[in-house]
Specification:
CATH architecture: 4-Layer Sandwich
Shape: globular
CATH superfamily: Carbon-nitrogen hydrolase
CATH topology: Nitrilase/N-carbamoyl-D-aminoacid amidohydrolase
Oligomer: single chain
Order of helices and strands: EEHEHHEEEHHEEHEHEEEEEHHHH
CATH class: Alpha Beta
Length: about 375
């Protein structure tokens, strides 16, 4: 007789939308950490009738991040505030998870790992009720123009020798007493591949930390943040809990740089809760895993049952963004350096006819436009040269 599964009772999940301080050192990190712990105390205490079992924080909620312009940090600045997942910050969050018997997810940890000491990874994590880190995920799709964290893809050959290269290793999902949990970070959600990998691995709740900026379309009328993430939840028949900054404190940012709009989306793509404003807030939502599992048992409009994969293999036969661009000993030094491989990507996309140049431009022109724009930005000091 095959195994039967225990019932998972409904519970509360908290999506955090904190005020973030862009840190330069451990004191700045502690400031963000202390605020995060207070927000957990508030949320667990206020929403007490249906116990909280899961908390999701945004990307870079501990350390902040910098972008092009006068406030851009180079690799040395980031490494000064890099931490490890066994350090005091994770221990403090672990103690809180243990205190309240819950899981804590977050992302954008500027993590240093002993295997690759010359760089940092943009790391998402899940801490379990034991207080231990039970899942670590290194962000896969890091935008070329923001953040100096390394993707596993940047040093793919060496990374997979150390950590493994299977889909279950690169995009991990853990089976817990509150459901199957996975995570993806910010830009990972702009395209379908990472969430599809999580869905393939059985994920029922995608914990989705972001530091998504208003310029990228976080609010109406554009709001690609909402419609893409509704799609990710719908395509994989899973909950998606999207956590963004509420406000930020940094001399070079407007306070609503990442303008909130955190939400909880259910396994049909329906928005359950939404915080449509750039302010600090805590959102509570009821999670019903049994309802999700019943929904997945139906064949009508089941986004996995009808998946016919053979026709799409050619899309991934050849690299688009090439791997191993920043191997060991050669981390990206600054954002202009990190954007270097984009020239090769444009050359490929236009060269094979997928993209068509604007009027008056040739295919050969297009590979150089990006490099010209970077050089112009460096000339006026909005991108670093060092």
């Amino acid at each position: 007789m095959s195994k039967t599964f225990d019932r998972i009772e409904k519970y509360t999940a908290l999506v955090m939308q904190p005020h973030v301080f862009v840190a330069n050192d451990r004191d700045g990190i502690k400031r963000n950490l202390d605020r995060a712990l207070n927000l957990i105390d508030y949320g667990v205490g206020y929403f007490w009738e249906l116990p909280t079992r899961l908390v999701v924080f945004p990307e870079y909620f501990l350390q902040g991040v910098t972008t092009p312009g006068k406030g851009e940090h180079g690799i040395d600045d980031f490494m000064k505030k890099a931490i490890t997942l066994d350090g005091p910050e994770m221990q403090a969050l672990g103690a809180k998870a243990k205190e309240y018997n819950l899981y804590i997810a977050g992302g954008g940890v500027i993590e240093k790992v002993p295997e690759f000491p010359d760089r940092w990874f943009n790391t998402a994590f899940i801490i379990g009720p034991t207080g231990e880190v039970v899942l670590r995920y290194h962000k896969w799709h890091i935008p070329a123009s923001i953040g100096l964290g390394s993707s596993p893809h940047d040093l793919f050959d060496e990374y997979t020798k150390v950590f493994g290269g299977g889909i279950d290793t690169l995009f991990p999902v853990i089976d817990t007493e509150i459901g199957k949990l996975g995570t993806m970070t910010c830009h990972d959600g702009c395209t379908p591949e990472v969430s599809r990998a999580l869905g393939y691995n059985g994920c029922e709740i995608i914990c989705h930390p972001v530091a998504l900026q208003e310029v990228e379309g976080v609010s109406e009328p554009w709001d690609f943040w909402m419609f893409t993430r509704r799609t990710r939840a719908h395509d994989n028949m899973c909950y998606l809990l999207g956590s963004n900054w509420g406000t930020v404190e940094y001399d070079y940012y407007p306070r609503a740089f990442c303008s909130g709009n955190s939400f909880a989306i259910d396994y049909t793509g329906m928005v359950l809760r939404h915080m449509p404003y750039p302010e600090e807030q805590v959102l509570a939502v009821t999670i019903d895993i049994e309802s999700l599992r019943e929904h997945r048992s139906r064949c009508n409009h089941n986004t996995w049952v009808d998946l016919r994969t053979e026709g799409f293999r050619q899309i991934y036969d050849k690299p688009i963004y090439p791997p191993n661009q920043f191997p060991p000993g050669r981390p990206p030094r600054n954002l202009a350096d990190k954007m270097g491989p984009v020239k090769e990507v444009f050359q490929e996309l236009y060269g094979r006819g997928q993209f068509t140049p604007p009027s008056g431009r040739s295919v050969d022109d297009m590979a150089n436009i990006h490099a010209e724009r970077v050089a112009r930005a460096q000339d006026i000091g909005t991108l670093r040269r060092d």
